[in-house]
Amino acid sequence: MSETPIASAKRALTYVEDGQTVGLGTGRAATAFVRELGRLVAEGLTVRAVATSNATAAVARELHIPLFELHEVGRLDVTFDGADEVDPNLEMIKGYGGALVREKITAASSHRLVILVGPEKMVSQLGERGKLPVEVVPFGLSLAAERLRALGCEPVLRENESGQAYLTDNHNSIFDCQLEPIANPQHLESQILAIPGVLGTGLFVGMADVVIVDAENGPRVLERKSA
Asked: For residue range 17-71, what is the model confidence (pLDDT) as tens digits?
């Protein structure tokens, strides 16, 4: 791993206070943060953590970060996560790592959401990378595919390395919807969520409070204007 995401992870640590309850996201940037957090825990920092995926939980356990279920802690002080796209208004697309529903629940349960990304994840308009993950109950795949296609979102069923249908930690499927840049993310989110069987989309609108962007000369911190 390069030094740049480690620098951003260390910068993110400034948003952690002793005794807090924190959410731990999924993916490369989030894992870099978890490892830096584990270093502070080993030095005596006291935190309680909620992991958004089994993979993140495994890393946290390895580092002896105390883990809890979300229902055991209720509200979180701050969640740290990555993103796949971030626009100038700090709206995001997430879910390439497959944990979008748990990530969104955790983010919504947090007083603050801090996002760590590389500069390649910054876009002028959401959807520029052409993919929007949507988590769907397997029983509803055919209906969801039909409705998504009608919305201009061409559904492609995600597969695992063995060529089988990918399943989330919630035992659901994911459509990686192919689409053009999104003119109105909030409206599209509402339309997709209205489809029976859809559990969540990778659109995270109005959720990020702080975005820490990797840069060669040090992390760049962006804050939501209304925060």
From this structure: 999 999 999 999 999 999 999 999 999 999 999 999 999 999 999 999 999 999 9
3-state DSSP assignment of residue 128: coil
CATH value of 3-123+205-218 in 3.40.50.300, 3.40.1170.60, 3.40.50.720, 3.40.50.1360: 3.40.50.1360
Return the pLDDT at 69: 97
Q: What is the widest separation between alpha-carbon atoms in the chain? A: 54
Q: Which residues, in sequence order, are CB contacts of 206 under 8 Å at separation 6+?
A: 91, 186
Residues 202/27, Cβ–Cβ less than 8 Å: no
Single out the residue of 130, 121, 99, 129 nearest to residue 200, CA to CA: 99
Q: Could you say which of 103, 120, 135, 180 is catalytic? A: 103
Residue 135 φ/ψ, nearest 5 degrees: -90, 130
146 is catalytic: no
